Amino acid sequence: MIGYLNVILRLAIWFLLTADLSGANIVIGVAVALLLPRSYTAPGAFRDWLRALAETLVAIPQAYQEAVEIILRPHRREAITMERVKPQRTPGLIFLDIFLITFTPKTIVLKYHEDGWYEVHRIQPGRSPKP
């Protein structure tokens, strides 16, 4: 089941990159998704994929809410924080985590550290400190 989710994720990325749903592009996308090498790490639990999907559905209205907040009350303070990667994450789930963090307007992942940390840039409400 997880193999299907990886293929679907690869196809979704392909369609987002190409922005073309023609028959030829679909065939090429399926071929690319199937021919890309697979990772040999332990497959993610189906429960983790469902949780990531639920987080994605929550992130969409959150992104709109944050965009409106930024428009109405400009955010001038910035902070760079380190967030721990959830344990036993597959590369596909790590990609989804980074996507979810970056999807909302107030945060962006600056760097993924191989030792299990994300470096996240956040903007926060309030005025910036005076120099």
* Major sheet details: 3 strands, antiparallel
Distance between the termini: 54 Å
Please give the order of strands in the largest beta sheet.
Answer: 1-3-2
Low-pLDDT stretches are none
* Count of helical stretches: 4
Rg: 18 Å
Q: What is the averaged pLDDT score?
A: 83
**Overall number of strands:** 3
* Total number of distinct structural domains: 2
**Structural class by SSE content:** alpha+beta
Query: What fraction, in percent, of the residue positions are helical?
Result: 40-55%
Order of helix and strand elements from N to C terminus: HHHEHEE
What is the 3D form?
globular
The fraction of residues assigned to DSSP E strands is 15-25%
InterPro entries: Cation_antiport_E
Pfam family, one: MNHE
Organism: Almyronema epifaneia S1
Protein name: Na+/H+ antiporter subunit E
Can you walk through the features of this model?
With 131 residues, the protein is of the alpha+beta class. It has two domains: 1-38; 52-131, no CATH class. It is 53% helix and 18% strand. It has helices at 2-18, 23-35, 46-72, 91-103; strands at residues 77-84, 107-113, 117-124. The longest helix has 27 residues, at 46-72. It is globular and about 55 Å long. The protein starts with a helix and ends in a 7-residue tail after the last strand.
